[in-house]
Write a structure and sequence with these properties.
Layout lengths: L1 E5 L6 H12 L2 E4 H11 L2 H11 L6 H12 L8 E4 L5 H13 L6 E6 L2 H9 L1 E3 L6 E3 L26 H23 L4 E5 L4 H11 L5
Helix pairs in contact: 1-8, 2-3, 2-4, 4-5, 5-7, 6-7
Length: 216
Amino acid sequence: MNLVFLGPPGVGKGTQAATVAAALNLAHISTGDLLRAAIAAGTKTGLEARASMDAGRLVPDEVVNRLVRERLQEKDAAGGALFDGYPRTPAQAQALDGILRDLGRRVDRVLDFQAPDAVVVERIGGRRTCPRCSAAYHVTWAPSRRDGECEKCGGKLEQRSDDRPETVKHRLEVYRRDTRGVSEHYRSSGTYVMIAADREIAAVTADVLEQLKGLK
């Protein structure tokens, strides 16, 4: 089984991806993780990616797609994979189709996690992190008991600049602009399902697993 999880930042697809991948014994493939691992390992592909990032450019699709192809040939991905936040562009979607086709596989289901902008802004805008130890909190759902200070080390909690409401709204606009064609690509394939993500985590997970029943 090969799954694609789509959705804007802050919608909760990463949390769902980790849970579902573990439940179904699928390789959890996040291109961010792949890039970090390749850069840390100093591989040829990793060095190409780092050169783009150091120059302030997006990592080229051909580099990202190569990492995905390499990852799919690892042992733990033989039984299937869950792609978290990839593909991000129509070109990447077409490339993934080709990569899977070469391996005798296909995308079996695409789940697009959606929530009202106000929900996403609240989720991301409420995040707070400790600059000392990187501990994470949320002002609503996981507040520190030390009133603005980290419970672990006492550091003053901060809001990242890209978590501020005005920045989140811009990120949502960019996401929709860049990924509109990806959703359209999968809608035409008959594999696309939209998931309402503005619910309790367990309810969303149950819905996802229900949508995947019968797939192998």
